[in-house]
Structure prediction request, 269 residues.
Amino acid sequence: MSTSAACPHPYSPHHNVEVGLGCTLSLIKWFSAGLNFLFLVLGVVVVVVGVNADLGWSSIQVSTDVAKGTIGLGCIIFFLAFLGCFGSAQLKKYILYLYFVLVFLIFIAILVIFVTALMNGDNGVHDTVSKIWDHASNDDRNAIQKSLDCCGFNSVLDRPGSICYSVTTSCADKMHDLAVHYFKILEIVFISVMCVLVFAMISSCCLISGIKMMDKQILAYERMHGSLESGMYQTGGYTTPMAGGYRPPPAHHQGMTLYGQESKLPSAV
Prediction:
């Protein structure tokens, strides 16, 4: 028995389905799986950072709400990345459907937040820093006044902390300038995240479309030639069983194209 006889037919359910995907979709498959694996690791790191902050093990002191929010964000990243990685690597169509829907919803939410922030502009920044000052504790106000060398919000007499490090400069303008600086960084982050989400949606759509096409071609092939589970059939160096021994294809099926590749079926034994 030749070595090729032991090889499964490339369109058999027992053969690696990558053969039917083609080079382009195979690259998309593994690139998408690899990218989602990196985000899966990132999700674990974010959760660990959040847990450390919540338990007070981190040198960076943050509020409990921020720590729990960080843990929640890490869990969301991990869950989405797991769906994308597993669905892409294993070509699970319905998992990719779920992945696409969740990514699309997150993309819409981020887009709404981004557009709203741009529309509010400078007034939005001032309102944000004003709310931060209003909800800040006395210790937080003292920390802001110390780091920015200021006192009070709109003036040195406007809701100052208990310790002022400057009696001439208020904190509103300095907080506003600092917030504008960080908002510009956030704009870059938002745009980068949206680009990654767009790629994730496009890659999942391509894989879903490729899986559907492959399923249709396998079904059409099985209807044309019968079950691929028994007998003998030979093409392109592969030999598989087919009921009733080797059976050459009809003349009008010779040279047919499957999965973008011309078949090499012999016309006679």
